[in-house]
Amino acid sequence: MHTSLNAFSETDELENILSLSAGRPSPLIDSILGKPPPKELEEEAELYLKDADIGVAPLQRSFKLNDDQARAVSGALASATSASHLPVRLIHGPFGSGKTHTIAAFVTKAAELLKSSNGRIMIAAHTNVAVDRVLQSLLEAGFTDFIRVGSVRKIDPVILPYSLHVKTGKGPSQAKELEAMLKETTSVRKRAILQKEIETLSSGKVGMRKALLKKCSVVGVTCYSSSHEDLKNMEFSVVVLDECSQMTEPSSLLPVVQSRCKTLVAVGDPLQLSPVVADVPESNRSKANVTRNPLKRTLFSRLSDAGHSKVTLRTQYRLHPALSAVPNKCFYDGVLIDGIGASDRTSLIRLTTGGVLSPIVWWDTSGFDTKEGQSKLNVEEATRVSGVVRCLLDNDVPAGRIGVIAFYAAQASCVSNKLAHAPHDVAREMTNVNDDEDFESFLPSDVQVSTVDAFQGQEKDVIIITLCGAPLSTFTNAERLNVALTRAKRHLIVVGAAAVAQKSNVSAWVETLKRARSTPNGYIPLSYETNAVLQKWSPAVKESVEHDDVLLSPSSEIAPSPRFLNDRETLLELGFDQKRYWDFYCAVMRGVNYDHKQSRATVTESPLRPFIQRVFPRVFDANGDIEWSKAKVKRALSIDVIGLLRRFIEYEHGSEWGTLDKLIDAFEDREEFERDPTGFGWMCVQEAEGAVAVGDCGTGPTTRSDDADEDSWNT
C-alpha cells in the first residue's frame, strides 16, 4: 500500500494516517491524538506489581529478569489483561539493556494469559532484522506459536520455518530465492534450514501456514507489511513496537491502526538516532507554519512527552564498564548501571611490553580532512585504521568481531578500499568451532566498515572510530555520537586528532580523550610510528562471552536455550561438579599455553571427551586426535569448551564458582599453587587477587622454565 502523505503539521499527519482505518477508528485514537493519559494511583500499580502471577517477583523467577525489566513487563501485562486501565506502556531501553529479552518475556506471558479470550499479539518494527531478532529470542525461550509475515528474501533463515511468504510470485520464484540464499550462506545450521524450507515449498506444505496465521497467538511483521492483504480485517489485542524511536510516526501508526489494538507497548531509546527525514523546504515553511519536518518527531517521544507510563531499563550488559562510563555521563545523566564487570569483557590483545590493550584507546593523528563533494575523507586516518584492523586479524580476532565506524560515507569508502587491497595470508583457515554457527573469516575485506547510522542496533567486540570531520561538524549530533560510542563490547579505538577533539568542546569527545589519557596504554601519541606500536600486540587467549544461548546470571539478557539445557543434562549425568571443572580447566590451560604433556593427556583421556566431540567436533582431527599446535584448536578449547563448562557451573552452583579466587580457595593450597614450576599457578593467584573470572590466567606466559617437571602435575 502506498499512501501520499503531504502534511504540514503533526495533527494533519496523524489524521491522514488514521483515515486509513476505513471507518473503524482505532481504540487508541484518543491517546494517539494527544489526549492526556489516565492517572494511575500508586495503590493501583502496587496491586499488579505484587501480583502472584504477573508481579515483579514471579516474573523475575520465570524469565530471569532484573528489577527494571520485570517492572516493565508487569505493567505491560497489566494493561494487556485489563488489570490496568493504562492503554499505552513505554519501555526506554538504552544500549545493551536487554530490550529484546524483555519483549520476549512479555510476549510469552501475554500469549499465555490472552489465550482464553482469543487475544492476539502483533510484533512490529521498521526493519526485518529487528522483527527477526525478537522472534529468535522467542525461539530460544521455546515459544513457537507465531507466524512471520514477509518477503522470503528478507526473513532470517532461522525464522523461515515459521514464516508466510507474501512476496508476489508463485512457488517456483520463491524456490529460486531460497536457492540463492542457500548459495550465499556459509552457516551449516542455516543451510540445513534453507534446504528443508525448499523441500517444504515444493511439497506444498507452506500453504498450511496461511491457516495457522488466523490461529497463532503472535504475528511478526515490519510496519509496512502490517497492512498486507493476508492480515486484512484481523484484529490484535496488543501491538508491540520495537525500535519505535527509530521510525517515523506514520510507520509506527500503521500496525496500531490496522490491528485496532487496545494496548500498545512501545520500546525504544530516544537518545539514539531518530528516523532520517528531509526538512520541510524553506519555500514552504511560512505556508506550513513550521521550521522543521514534523515527521522528525517520533511516536515514542510524543507519547512520552504526553505523560504515558514509561519504565527505563537502567542496567546495561554490553559495554566494558570503562566504556559505558562516557555515554552514561554524557547522554544518560548517570542513571545507568553496569550489569557486567571487567572480568566479563577481558582484553583480546596482550602487549609484549607488559599489560593488555586498554578498553579505551585514543590514537592521535595529524592528517588533514579532504572534502569530497558534500562528504569528507582523511587518508592518514584510513591508513592507520587499516593497519589496526590487519593487526587484530593477525592476532586471532575474527573479522566478524571487528567494526569500523566513520561519520562520513567518503571516509568509510576510503577505509573499505584500503582493506579490500590489504595483504593477507590467503592460506589462512576459515574456522568454524561450532557446526551450527557462521564460519569465522579473517579476511580484511570481511570487516564491516559503515557510517554510524548503519551500525545502530549492532555490537562488536572491537570498534574502531575514524574521527574524520566529526568533532567540529554539526552533523555529528548527540544521538549519532551516542550510537558510535555504544557499539564496542571490549575495545573502543579512536583514530583521530586529539587537539581537534579537545577544541570541539563536545563533552563526549573530551571525556573519551580524558579517560584514554588516564588509562595505562590508553593514549598513543602523535610521535609513535604505526608498525612499532602494532608489533607489540599479541593474542590473548581469553574466555569468550559471545555465546548467547546460555544463562550467565539472573540478570543476563538471554534465557537458557534448548541446546544449553540438553548440554546441561549430559554434564549432570557425568557428575560434572566444581572440582572436576577446576581440574579440567587447569589441564586445558596448561596444555594450551604451557605445552604441558601430562595435562594434554588428561584432556585427551577425560570422561568429557565424547561430550566435547559432539558439541565441538572441530577440536579433533580425522583420526580423533586433538591437534594442540593449531590456533583454532587452542581457541576452541580455552574459549568455547571452557566457556561452556564455566557457564554450566555458574548456572548450577552460582556465579562465584566462575571466579579464580573461589576455586583456588576451594581446591588448592594457595602458597603451594603459586610455586607451580610452569608459572601457571602464580599467574592464576595474581589475577585471583583482583577477583578476575576464570579464563584470564590462561593468557599467561606461553613458555616455561627449562627445569619444569612435566610429570609433577597430575591433574
UniProtKB/TrEMBL annotation:
Annotated DNA2/NAM7 helicase-like C-terminal domain residues: 295-498
Region called Disordered, residue ranges: 695-715
Domain DNA2/NAM7 helicase helicase as annotated: residue spans: 64-190, 191-277
Coiled coil: none
Xref: InterPro entries: DNA2/NAM7-like, DNA2/NAM7-like_C, DNA2/NAM7_AAA_11, P-loop_NTPase, SF1_C_Upf1
Gene Ontology molecular functions: helicase activity
Protein name: AAA+ ATPase domain-containing protein
